[in-house]
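Most newcomers find our protein records easier to grasp once they have seen one. Each record describes a single protein and holds just a pair of labelled lines. A learned vocabulary of local backbone shapes supplies the integers on the structure line. Nothing more is needed to start thinking about how sequence determines fold. The record below serves as our worked example for the rest of this section.
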Amino acid sequence: MSDEVPDRPPQSGLVQALRVPRNAAIGIGVGVALAAVAYLARVLELLGPFAGTREYPVLGPEAWFLVLAFVLATSTALLVTSILTVVETVRRAREL
């Protein structure tokens, strides 16, 4: 038995063919835009004041909404990137 690892083909060709960097940039843009709108709408009370009463320990409401905006931005970016990559994969498969 040999301890050598067999050479694997480079993965960068697949990433470039499926346009993952472009999809990720679009996903990040959409995620950040959506999170910014949601954060501003909540913090600046653009849709009216929040009807409920809550306690926001340690950080205060603005910081908690900022954390939630980060979660919204990252999850939206991942979702949009995944959808665009799947669409590109299907398009490439139909070409073959």
Notes: Helices lie at 12-17, 20-43, 61-95. The mean pLDDT is 87. DSSP finds three helices and no strands in the chain. The radius of gyration is 21 Å.
